[in-house]
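Need a sequence for this fold. Nothing fancy.
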């Protein structure tokens, strides 16, 4: 048996990808990547379908959420910006 970790399996721990919150995916993948880069652990050769797809999907959902929040903030700021009033 190999002592190399599979990133997706480590994060999912037998769960369906839909059952793992994006915050957990991003935090755990960041820690695993940092440990791998520092030489503290070994990971299997990355494959898009298992290593990166999980992280990319979480990042895409996060970007979509942030874009919606920025758009909402910009929408609130537009009328106030022209009036000279501070935006709450």
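Here you go.
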């Amino acid at each position: 048996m190999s002592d190399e970790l599979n990133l997706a399996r480590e994060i999912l721990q037998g769960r369906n990808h839909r059952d793992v919150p994006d915050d957990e995916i991003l935090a755990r993948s960041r820690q695993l990547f940092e440990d791998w880069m520092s030489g503290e652990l070994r990971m299997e050769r990355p494959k898009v379908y298992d290593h990166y797809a999980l992280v990319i999907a979480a990042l895409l959902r996060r970007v979509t959420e942030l874009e919606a929040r920025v758009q909402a903030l910009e929408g609130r700021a537009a009328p106030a910006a022209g009036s000279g009033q501070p935006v709450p």
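For context: The CA atoms of residues 33 and 41 lie 9 Å apart.
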